[in-house]
Amino acid sequence: MNSELFYAVLGGLGQFGIITRARIPLQPAPKGVKWVRLLYDDFSSFTKDQELLISKNGRKDKSALDYLEGSLLMDQGSPDNWRSSFFPHKDHPKIISLITKHGIIYCLEVVKHYDDRTKHTVDKEMRQVLQGLNYMPGFMFGKDVGYEEFLNRVRSGELKLKSQGLWDVPHPWLNLFIPKSQISDFNNGVFRGIVLERNITTGPVLVYPMNRQKWDDRMSAVIPDEEIFYTVGFLHSSGFDTWEAFEDQNKDIMRFCNKTGIMVKQYLPHYSTKEEWVHHFGSKWKTLDIGRSVYMSASVYELFAWPFYSGDKLEYLWQ
């Protein structure tokens, strides 16, 4: 009934409206997952393999994966220190030795689902998917787990941290979208520069690509213009007296991107001036700015808050 408003709400950070009800279609859940992690010491090989894997994304394509995520392994103690145990304990020493040698090891995590009908063929399909990838020989680790166990992998880590009193602490996160053409510069300047030099990072650091064609450009969500772009997430946990060091690191990362011309876009940004929001929305700003004045004169559908600017201050008009 009001498609411009609908798509503005998607990715609108709550500034154009709030979804109060949704209908979600369901389908039968798989029984289990084939879960594999591969380690890399070369960032270029790591990104090329990720990009190859996300190019195979047809629903009926047996060479397609059901899940892909990349992350960094750094000197943070055990390789399992922020998630439920995955790597065999007997392999921890050689993984830690690699991290000590290289500073950062890149971990590619992939999953294929299976049910009673496909459980006898999933191993073969996974081998075909991974054939020709350039991970480090001898550093592929896999396991079979139930589908619910895989979905709850973060939940189990949460319960462990809660039991240790380490959950209800500050989380100075930074989540970014970065164009494919600049992800190598980001690796050199941020991962191997700022992050390694400061050596304060705790919690996971995620880095994995996405296809722009999977996103609807009518949404107000802002992503880079290139066909492939990367999500990078610094998911820190800090003490109540140490969070400022992480905030300073986040600011240094953004300053580095601005200085070197990396066209980064923040996910869930927080800006205080109109100029910053104009820069964030880029080519979408004109549409959103015009739409805002139209929506403010529209009839009431639910309780919405429309943003408007008074000087440099973001304020809201409630309808």
Automatic annotation (TrEMBL):
Does the entry feature the keyword Cytoplasm, yes or no?
A: no
**Domain spans labelled Cytokinin dehydrogenase 1 FAD/cytokinin binding:** 30-289
- Highest classification ranks of the organism: Eukaryota, Viridiplantae, Streptophyta, Embryophyta, Tracheophyta
**InterPro entries, alphabetized:** Cytok_DH_C_sf (IPR016170), Cytokinin_DH_FAD/cytokin-bd (IPR015345), FAD-bd_PCMH_sub2 (IPR016169), FAD-linked_Oxase-like_C (IPR016164), FAD-linked_Oxidoreductases_BP (IPR050432)
**Catalytic activity reported:** N(6)-dimethylallyladenine + A + H2O = 3-methyl-2-butenal + adenine + AH2
User: What name goes with this protein?
Assistant: cytokinin dehydrogenase
Return any one Pfam family short name: Cytokin-bind
What are the GO MF terms of this UniProt record? cytokinin dehydrogenase activity; flavin adenine dinucleotide binding
Q: Which organism's genome codes for this protein?
A: Gossypium schwendimanii (Cotton)
E.C. designation(s): 1.5.99.12
UniProt lists the family membership as follows: Belongs to the oxygen-dependent FAD-linked oxidoreductase family.
Q: Which cofactor does it need?
A: FAD
Query: GO terms for biological process?
Result: cytokinin metabolic process
Alphabetized, the UniProt keywords read: FAD, Flavoprotein, Oxidoreductase
